[in-house]
Amino acid sequence: MTSVRAKLKPETPKSVTAWFTATGRSAWMCADGSWTEDASNLGVFTGDEAEARLAAALKEEGLITDPYFMEVSATGGITGRETLRESLRADMSLIYGGAA
Prior knowledge:
The chain is an alpha+beta fold. 26% of the residues lie in helices and 21% in strands.
């Protein structure tokens, strides 16, 4: 399952986010391609690497659900058009799960 979202420009820093299928908790892809519940450990990707990371995430559906790009700063801070939504997801992960 994939939601339709506006496309971010290739040079825009982004992270891959999803939900863990088993728990429904927020998931973020780390720089090494693993998944975490801790938004402070998310990987930042641009260009072809970002596209490859999203393609890899789509192959992991089962472990995670509905992977998509979210805009972040170059240092991994949540930013962009969905800042409120993504900030809430990150805050909820701290409240209900913290680091995986």
